[in-house]
């Protein structure tokens, strides 16, 4: 089939919620391309608008780790989007085909995906659907981020919700703040990337559940099991950094730029530094002593200091960790995680936190997740009834 007198469609590569992606040939320029054609059964005005937005959003990005957009148009009543063809498959396929990734491959994935996200975030674009199927690999193994179909600009008030109020994105990778209805931010993409890296290292995403509500609840309130306890063979520094991406509080996660730089520096090969001896009479928020140091980032690990609230982007060591854990209630900490530096330290911090504050925070979280889940289910039903 020849689209727009120019793109000859050969074989279907895959099918998503909105479109069918074809391997094709641009007969004018004589090069292979990928053509995404909007599916007939979703081709209403709003789907066309979203599809057009995907084209316009991705066309603003010109980066080696983002799939390039080449053309967009309407042909025979259907919208189509022409992209660079990425011929190595997705990371979902890589995981299915070869099992969990080795640490060096995973570090490359982390760095390159973060580079692509940094380029988007620098332009104010939030991807909102970072998942293994949207991280493509070319024949040389270079990572290319695809599918800006539900991306939004951060200052777009509709970010995070569709017109029906439905939360968009994939539940397995949904950031806690989005699970409770807060609009997506660049930090939400970093949480999703953390979930993806976790899945690629372990074989399973950090949280799985039988119902959407239970899944959302886990994103909001459950600490991830450290990857090594699920069989991953990651250097300790890598693991702690990965857990930092999964911090419950968006402000505690490293940015895409920091993440890309950290992985490029090779710091992921390192081991966390030993924890400092616990000082008698230390205050109730031990991490503050590191906040005030000369580190590049708020809460960054200082040499000789303890774990920070964010991963140590300077590459000195341990870091951090699930900052959510460092700020959350003590019952959230996995007892089985005590053999890692970060989890030991968060136990110290939690034990000094006033119980009443912990309890209030806990109740707020439970209410928030229940409210968010109810909103999600209602929106889902409403969305289904509309289609
Ligand atoms: N430029 C491309 N080159 C090669 N393969 C691609 C390209 N873009 C998408 N694909 C592949 O095509 C398939 C469908 O992609 P698409 O973006 O339509 O859907 P999805 O991301 O799987 O689902 P959804 O859009 O509903 O989130 C995926 O398997 C993806 O890996």
TrEMBL record:
Residues 250-346 are annotated as: Disordered. The keyword ATP-binding applies. The lineage of its organism: Bacteria, Bacillati, Actinomycetota, Actinomycetes, Kitasatosporales. ATP binds at residue 36. InterPro entries: Kinase-like_dom_sf, Prot_kinase_dom, Protein_kinase_ATP_BS. Residues 313-331 have a biased composition (Low complexity). Keywords: ATP-binding, Kinase, Membrane, Nucleotide-binding, Serine/threonine-protein kinase, Transferase, Transmembrane, Transmembrane helix. This is non-specific serine/threonine protein kinase. It comes from the Bacteria. PANTHER family: MITOGEN-ACTIVATED PROTEIN KINASE KINASE KINASE 20-RELATED, SERINE_THREONINE-PROTEIN KINASE NEKL-3. Residues 333-346 have a biased composition (Polar residues). It comes from Streptomyces similanensis. Residues 250-261 have a biased composition (Basic and acidic residues). Residues 7-263 form the Protein kinase domain. It is an enzyme of class 2 (transferase). The chain crosses the membrane at residues 366-386. Its EC number is 2.7.11.1.
